[in-house]
Structure prediction request, 81 residues.
Amino acid sequence: MVNLDLYFREGCWLCDKAEEMLNGLKVKYGININKISIDSDKEIYELYRFDIPVLEFKDGSALHGVIKKKDLIRKLEENRE
Prediction:
């Protein structure tokens, strides 16, 4: 099981691509995605507006922007419970 936060914005094609990759790996890694719209909070917006999508993992690490599948798989392996 891997728990992570996905910071996204509606209409962001990179965000859609990241979510699509996560969904493709969901069964294998038991991914639980907590989706957070950066438009829901001014502080979150200011923090992530130039970095979305942002995948934040339990260990405090993150992937952002153009996310490569190999990097995502490595992070999922590192954060597996």
